[in-house]
Every structure is written in C-alpha cells, then in structure tokens.
Amino acid sequence: MKVKLSVVLFLLLAxxxxxxxxxxxVARVSxxxxxxxxxxxxxxxxxxxxFNKANGIDPTKFVNEPALLKKxxxxxxxxxxxxxxxxxxxxxxxxxxxTCRAVGTNCYIFVEDSMWTAGNVSQDAVNSVMxxxxxxxxxxxxxxxxxxxxxxxxxxxxxxxxSKIIIHILNIPDGYTGKAGEGYVAGYFYSVNQSTTHAxxxxxxxxxLDCKPLNLLTANGLxxxxxxxxxxxxxxxxxxxxxxGQVTFFNEAWSLVAEVxxxxxxxxxxxxxxxxxxxxxxxxxWNDLDATxxxxxxxxxxxxxxxxxxQFGADILKKYTQSVKTGVDAFDNDVFPKLGTTRRFADVLHxxxxxxxxxxxxxxxxxTKYGYSYSPVAKVNPISTSLSSTVTTNEDAxxxxxxxxxxxxxxxxxxxxxxSNTSAVKVKAVKIGSGTPIISDVVLNSDVNFSDFGxxxxxxxxxxxxxxxxxxxxxxxxxxYSYSGTAASGTQELAYDSTEPVGFIQQTNGDSxxxxxxxxxxxxxxxxxxxxxxxxxxxxxxxxxxxxxTQLGGTTYASFTATSKLTQAPSVIDQNGTYPYxxxxxxxxxxxxxxxxxxxDKNFIVQFPIEDPYPSKNRVLSTYHPSTGVEHTVLxxxxxxTWGYSGVANLPDYxxxxxxxxxxxxxxxxxxxxxxxxxxxxxxxxxxxNPFNPSTVISYxxxxxxxxxxxxxxxxxxxxxxxxDEEKSAGKYNILWDSRNNxxxxxxxxxxxxxxxxxxxxxTKKMVLMK
Length: 771
Hints:
With 771 residues, the chain is of the alpha+beta class. Helix content is 17%, strand content 31%.
C-alpha cells in the first residue's frame, strides 16, 4: 500500500538520545491532507539502536570538529557522485551511485541512478522538488521551503563551504515490503554528514528523501515529500544551533510547526493516537521505545507548537531555536523576556489547556489566547458524567503538565467538590450555553455550587490540570471529585456501537454473547434494544457483572424474550459475501424492563446464550468497531469456558460489536419508546458496510446545531460527491451514499474518502467500493 500526503508520520529517529542527530519521517495521518491511504507506523528506535551498535557511532564526538575539508567546486547537472547512505535493514552504510539532476538557488538535487533508470523519478518531479525548496510553497507562492525556514528558524550549518543543500532522492532501505498498513521512512536528516572526519560522512549539508514507495510522480506524493523537506530541513537548522542535542519534544515540535508554516498542514489531532483523546500525558514526554505510543507525542507537540506560533508569531520559533538555553528554561529566562511578554511557560500552558477545549478567540475582548486561528483543530474529548441526587465520588489523577476534562451535559444545579493533597492540581470551570463561554476558577477541597447549570447554560466542563513542567515531582497527582444535583429527566442511551449491522458472530451451541454496560449512578434500567436477525424469538437476560472470568455474570436481574418485528425472513448472503441488510435496519426490537426495577449503580451485562444452530434459533446482529482499548462486546466459548473478544479477520484494527443498547432513566419513566440523549461530542463513524456495493451508510453525531458538510473524495483528492451541506440540529444522523458522483453516474471500484466539517470539527475516513 502506498502511503502518501495524509499519512506521512514523523517518527523520531535519534542517535543515542541526542534528538537533533538523526531524524526520520515515516507514514502518518495528517489532518490537513487526509485524502490518502493510512499506513502503519514503524518503530524506529530498535532499528537505530542496532544501527548504532553495528557501526559504533557516537554522534556527540563530531560536535565542534574543525572544518578541515571543503567542497573544491560546486556541482553541475550531470555530475556523478557516490553518496553515503544508511541501510536500516542491514545496519550498514553503503554508497549510493547518484547523479545531479538539478541545481537550484539553494539546493543540489541528486537522484539515485537505479531509481532514475527504473522510472521512479522523472525530471518533472526533480524540477518540482527544486521549485518547492527554492521558490514556492502552499503558504507563500513567492517563497520556497529554504527561505521560509531560514526566516522562521535560522540558518542551516555549512561545513562544506557551499550554501546549497543536497537533497538526495533514493529508495531508503527501511524494510518496507508493501504490505497493507505498513509504514516506511519518507526522509531523514543525519548529523554524521556534518562530520569532516567520519569515514562514512558526505561532509556536506544533506538530507534524504524517499522515492519508493513515496511516489514523487504524483501531486500528493510531491506534497508528502515537501512536507518531509520542511520537517527535516528544520532539524538541520536546529542541529546548527544545538549540535550537542535539544529537548526532543521541542525539536520535534519545531519540525512539525515548520510543516504548518510552509503550508503543508497540521499533524493529525483526532483518532486514537491524536491529542484530542490523549490529553493526560506529561507535556514533554517522548516515548522513543513504542512506535505507536510516540504518535501521541507527535500529535501533542504539533498542537502545542501551533499554539505558540499563533500566540507569539514566528519570532518565538527563531528565538527558541537560537537560544543558548534549552527546554522550559529557554522560554522563561530568554525567549519570553525578549518577546516583551509577562507570560511565562506555566501561564501559557494554563491558557493552552483552556484553548484546547474552548477553541474560541472571542471569549473576552482582547483575549485571543483561548482559541486557534488555524482550522480545523479538533476539540479535546472530555469524560462525560451523569448527575444524580445521590453524591457520587470518583477517583482520578492528572499527570505533570497535563490536563483532564470532565463534562456534564444534562441535569441541573450541580454541587461539586474537587479534593487533592497537592496545590499543584488546579481546576477551571467552563460554562457553555447560547452565549460566550464563561471560564472561572474552582476552589479545591470545598463544595462549589453551580445553581444556573441546566438553565443559563447546558454544558459544564471542568479542566483539571497541572501546569508546572519543571516540577521535581513526576506525578501523577491524585484527586477526587464528588458531585450531586438534579438528574436529567427522560431516558439516557448506553451504546457502544454507532453503525448498522454487517453480520452476526458465528458461534456454536452452548456459547454466549454479551455486552457489558457501564454503571450510571442514580438511574434505573428502563429497556434494551437489540438488532436481531430472523423471525423467531430470542432469549436473553440481564446479569450482575463480575469481571472477565469464567462467570462473567453473577446474579440474574431479569430474563426476557425478544420478538422479531420481521414478517418475512431476510435475504441470504449475496454474491459478494455480504449481508444486504436494509439501511437503516428495521428489526431493532425493544424489551421493556421497567417492571424488573433494576438499578444501574453498578456495571451490568446483557447476555444472549447461543442455542440451536442458526437459523433454527435467532442471532443478535453485529457490526465493526475500532479496537481501541477494552471492548464492551465479549464472547463466551463453552469449549474452553473463557470469555474474550472477537477480531475481524480482514480488518486488523477492528473487532465485532454486538448491536445491543441499554436505556436508563432518572426517576419514573413511562415512555413507550426510549429517548436517546443528545451526543456530547462531534463524531464521524466508519461507514457500513465497508467494503460495500453499491451503497453504504455514513453515521455522524452533532452535540449542537451546526452547519454540516459531508463530501466524498477519490484517492487523489478530487471531490466526487457532496452528500450534505446544510444546517442540522443536535442529534445522531445516518446518510446514504449510493456510489454515484455529483452528476448521477456510479463511480468505479476503489478507495474513497469521506470528510465531515461542522463547527470547527473535521475528520476524514477511508472506505472501499468493491464491485
């Protein structure tokens, strides 16, 4: 699978933990350029460790080396040169026979001869790379990457006496085999090339740019390469001012914001690895040892550097790069004083935590510190909490220089008490209603009442944070919060799926399926709804949850029989091996459980034993669900007496989710059908079915009235279909795409992307049309 612009993921490659020494770029998800396939990031640190050990490299010994060798003459088009490069598979240096294919104002472009002969690089591609580096970027048609980065950060090193930078285009040996979801190194800067004595140094300013599988023959491939160029050239500049090493977080943050400054977009902020879902991490953390976990660090670094850039302009980027100090000390004792601001790092961090949730630059006249100008920047996803008249206490912790977000979106008149044994934990309240958000401090260790919650405003979020990045205590810092109030009337939906059925889980007689539901203190179980497959009734029960043991459920609270609404059997599997269920699916069956008087103060499960083989007995339908953490659907295998999860064979990042939903009510419920509460956040679900033919359903949720756009794009970014562009009220929606374009013609098989934009929220997902 080729990984292009939307998926270039800049992973750290550091030699002996000196972050400026060796930087690489591998497949990633970008929010600014999302219309490409998603690759799987590699784990670079073990590869670099092996490379170091095999070659005995200590890059720190090259710092302050005397400049003994200089380039005798400049290069010309057609000049041949064997350039030292790194093979990350064999852990060896090798000479790459290459030819100079272009000479620009600020660069020489050498192309590996084998890649030129094979047609992986053309002269048009070389000229495009040179033009982007020298003359023009998406941010400024009159400035190239070189001028933009030099003006923003400073000058690159110059050990060869020639101000031009060598861009070496080659097939980087990184072990990439072309398997689906596999990542690759798209480019890197290597500080050994600044050495005038190392045997494998090119003794020149050079960085490496991949051309296989990175496709420089396409517009999106070139954008990927130029985003890589902006990123790696900043690493080269940073090395010039900090050859002994820089704080990894800020080195990477500056390279990520270089992409934004040059117009190549902001690193992805949503998804399971995005900052929106990973706010409670130490700001300066950098996890080199886990190639997946480090993606969270990249996302956070990109967002923080963007915030600093917007708040203080490009001057902060240059002053930090060229400061003799590093880290937080550089900001507080050098950069901020020179910028003439009284804000210090702790102040900025405090404001950043608020901006990540509020994202509104008009909260108060003259205060732009609580939002972003760049769009889209996904808001953080808070923990949703429900009110009851009974006092509920939760225990949690916040990490150093990190934040937790806790939100209430239903109920009235909340009283809350945050307690902590350390003054390092602080709390802000954010009230959101029809007007401008209101932000206030929350006093710790005392009851605080918000009597106007549920009347003057309908959303109350607490930001629990620690903003001392220099704290000698590593945390985490424990806190508790106790709250009570008037619960929302009506019924609340508990759902761990968001799509329509694609099939059912194949199990045998004696097995079971179950969905675990999280507790809702102060409420009672009103009913459940299930999507069932056939005409015959299906038996189930509600049980106390014991944990993932041989006895998942304990006490039986209720047994029931669910009856199908269908009058005739559904169709069989079609010729494509899919289940052509109607969309939306009509056979959602309700079971009223009010008479069982079941409280939802504790976790509970809804279980369906598998009896006779299908179709003699019915089945609960299932859909796909992203495999992010512990899933709620679990399966019991009678043969092994164990509970577990079930993955989807052709979708490695997904598991099955049974279509069972529970509804809990506050007080007395006499509704004939469950009422689904409004969503607490914007979401875009994976389309269903996927792959599909000829139609598929896209689901999304809106927490408030918003203008919504959903568009379909092909694999190279062309708009295929505009599905919706209109104002919608808060709620959950499904929209059908029948594989037709804007002109009513059905499109061909292939990979397509659908993107939602609504009130500053934007997200893109991939789908496959298979005929």
